[in-house]
Automatic annotation (TrEMBL):
This is DUF4179 domain-containing protein. It comes from the Bacteria. The chain crosses the membrane at residues 41-59. The keyword Membrane applies. Keywords: Membrane, Transmembrane, Transmembrane helix.
Length: 455
């Protein structure tokens, strides 16, 4: 895969990344710096997407090298939020193999410094053990300590416990573990929760997402990553209480055919290069192609790369593109590209979401950028009847200005947590929405369908 295919492989996961190179796609959603193994990086994942023969994914708090215990890490009792996960029975095809599980525990207990886990067998937990798609054998083990950590042991399918290699580790801070590797996606949480799955959501005209849920067999989800349906999500619940709901993976979709680059309602100027890349990225991420889906450009323009001597060419284009489904709504995303032969591209977490009627959509976003520092630019794309905007903090108007065909831009440094309101020529409110800055790589869930955490 090369050119556009490589680019889509980098951006299709839909995570909050400011730089869609391979390095940035693997950056953590936590404030901590992420470190990954170069041989077989596996860890706690937020979202998984699948290309033809590749599985890019995001790790949360993963690490490489020997996971040091650290002062006090191996003391104390686990936090209440993860206690039920650590005390749940082993999952996986080898869960009933007492001798295999014991061999894993013995291996760790005999060399606890190597694994950064306690040497006390009573405080060791094998959370998962079994063969997974991709012809691999996977073991996830953790320590029941005051600052729990899980390690990943990996090997060929059928490998003995002593032949598995230490391939990653992560701090256990949540009671749901999501993990992906070459060929598989895995999700599990505490025992005794009902597990349901949903794929192929419907995007409605009012901007909401409708899903149909069905029970999943067993108490954990393990899937072949090469056959995952679009926008797969998992839910853990007890009765009416949802304990967790979040994305698992996306199988990806083929790029759509040529799209009309003319922006709707005269919002901006045509940017055919960026529009085609943005449409292909949305199609890949959401699996949305076919006769019932058409792609529209909500806004596009020229784009001046802010790092012309680094990763960008200095001149480029930007486009916000939406996939309009048969139900009237759909996801949209914004991509900026430079003018190099194989385009460098950037997105931004505030530039995407799920919308209903394109004529009623109000988008407020920070611009993608090629530098480490986020620019202060705030872009507004409003319904065509809107002629002016206000940035409001409660009853106070922070800033305001005119809109042309519903489009405006201002320089307003963050962090912001404001309401943006747009007005027509008779001073009537056309639309309003909340806007909040997102810090790079901080947890905010899926910007298209947020996670639900009920713990």
């Amino acid at each position: 895969m090369s050119g556009l295919g490589d680019l889509l492989d980098q951006i299709a996961d839909g995570a909050k990344v400011y730089d869609v190179t391979n390095v940035a796609v693997r950056k953590s959603n936590n404030r901590r710096r992420l470190r990954t193994f170069t041989k077989s990086a596996v860890g706690l994942v937020v979202l998984v997407c699948v290309a033809a023969n590749a599985l890019p994914f995001i790790l949360r708090g993963g690490g490489m090298g020997r996971p040091e215990g650290g002062p006090g890490r191996l003391d104390g009792e686990p936090p209440a939020v993860v206690r039920a996960l650590l005390d749940s029975p082993t999952r996986g095809s080898l869960a009933g193999d007492i001798n295999y599980v014991k061999a894993v525990v013995d291996r760790i207990a005999d060399d606890p410094e190597r694994y950064g886990l306690p040497g006390d067998r009573a405080r060791l937990r094998v959370l998962f053990a079994g063969d997974v798609p991709g012809n691999r054998r996977l073991v996830i083990a953790a320590g029941a300590t005051g600052a729990p950590r899980a390690i990943t042991l990996d090997g060929a399918a059928g490998a003995a416990a002593g032949k598995l290699e230490l391939t990653g580790w992560t701090d256990v801070e949540e009671p749901v573990m999501r993990q992906g590797g070459q060929g598989y996606a895995l999700v599990f949480g505490p025992e005794r929760y009902e597990l349901s799955i949903s794929s192929s959501p419907r995007y409605l005209l009012d901007g909401t997402v409708k899903r149909t849920w069905e029970p999943a067999p067993g108490d954990y989800l393990l899937r072949d990553a090469t056959t995952l349906p679009p926008r797969l999500r998992v839910r853990m619940s007890k009765g009416d209480k949802v304990f967790f709901e979040g994305p698992v993976a996306s199988s990806g979709g083929n790029p759509p055919g040529a799209i009309d680059p003319t922006p709707l309602f005269g919002r901006g100027k045509p940017a055919p290069r960026a529009a085609q890349v943005a449409a292909s990225a949305v199609a890949y991420q959401f699996g949305l192609t076919g006769p019932d889906v058409h792609y529209v450009v909500l806004w596009s323009d020229d784009f001046v790369v802010d790092d012309p001597n680094g990763t960008g060419s200095g001149k480029g284009q930007i486009a916000t593109v939406m996939a309009v489904t048969a139900d009237g709504g759909g996801p949209y995303n914004t991509l900026a590209t430079d003018a190099s032969a194989q385009p460098n591209a950037r997105n931004h977490p505030t530039g995407g979401g799920v919308a209903g009627d394109p004529a009623k959509l109000l988008i407020v976003m920070r611009m993608p950028h090629f530098t480490k520092e986020e620019p202060a630019t705030l872009q507004i794309v409003a319904p065509p009847a809107a002629v002016r905007y206000e940035i409001r903090n409660g009853d106070a108007v922070v800033a305001g200005g005119a809109l042309t065909n519903g489009v405006g831009r201002l320089e307003l440094p963050g962090p912001l947590k404001v309401t943006v309101r747009v007005y027509d020529d008779k001073n009537g409110v056309v639309a309003e929405r909340a806007f909040a800055d997102l810090e790079p790589y901080t947890p905010a869930g899926d910007s298209f369908e947020p996670e639900v955490k009920g713990w």
